[in-house]
Amino acid sequence: MTCVIQDRTSRMLIGVGEQREGLYYLRRIVTAAAMKAKSETSYDLWHKRLGHASTKAINMLPVTGFVQNKDSCNQVCDICLRAKQSRESFSISENKSMDIFQLIHCDLWGPYRTPAFNGARYFLTIVDDFSRAVWIYLLVDKKEVFPYLSQFITMVERQFAKQVKIIRSDNGTEFTSMGNYFLDRGIMHETSCTGTPQQNGRVERKHRHILNVARALCFQANFPLEFWGDCVLTACYLINRTPTTVLHGKTPYNLLYGTPPSLNHLRVLGCLCYAHNQNHKGDKFASRS
């Protein structure tokens, strides 16, 4: 009887073992395959780690040991087709801000029919016009826009020593009700005309980008719908760390902090992992994970 061991993600052969006296003896291919898997990082793996990012974005990654396979780049990704197919896009407006947080775009998405695990049915999207960085807040109710947006403005002042000067949104009451708050802080509030989301196209396009990545993550991991909130937050995290041609190959994180982000900790969402068991109570033979 023979035992075959394969990598679950890449389907690469790790080892082959033969049964002798109740045990499987693995051939030397195990060591060679493990070394190769560690030294080479495929296009497909980074495509999945970054939430099914585009070929252009992956080619701009400053990753060492990256192996680009032309056949992989040209293959059609079923999850991308299911998650990202869309109609004609909004027209692209020119970037007029000269520094981070001079202009931010805000929009509210929802309500979604299935609440997330924390009860959220909405999420608030905030986009910095200059860096294209995005922040996501999961909301249970529209009334939470005020406290979360005010917390964001305070965070910008404390962590980046910057002042939000202009906020652009639609005419939703969750934003127009903050008029006095904006006046007190000297913030100009610009709103789009009713029924014309194209006037707030930057955040509308970012919404589509976030949902495309979130759907791809959900499909990739076969998550139930209750995980949509976690997928949206993960998509936001990945988008801020993915290079884009709009920023000439840089990432939003780079423009915010002045340094490229580390990607070494990224793994494919939904992959197998082991948690350390701290409750073994000193038992030397208890499972450690």
TrEMBL record:
UniProt cross-references to SUPFAM superfamilies, sorted A to Z: Ribonuclease H-like
Superkingdom field: Eukaryota
Transmembrane segments annotated in the record for this chain: none
GO molecular function, one term: nucleic acid binding
Domain Integrase catalytic: 92-260
One GO-annotated biological process of the protein: DNA integration
Name this polypeptide is given: Retrovirus-related Pol polyprotein from transposon TNT 1-94
Organism: Cajanus cajan
